[in-house]
Amino acid sequence: MNQGRIWCVVKPTVGLPLFLGAVALISLTVHSAILNNTEWFAAFWGG
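Request: output the structure for the sequence above.
Response:
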């Protein structure tokens, strides 16, 4: 892992939850934007 030195600056107990939370937030934002701006996505989720 060539980026392993980041954990010398940020503790994994802080950095990993922040990273995973940011990924989840971006994912929800993208899904929300698609759901609100297309007609087919809501129909797809609705079955």
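The mean pLDDT is 89.
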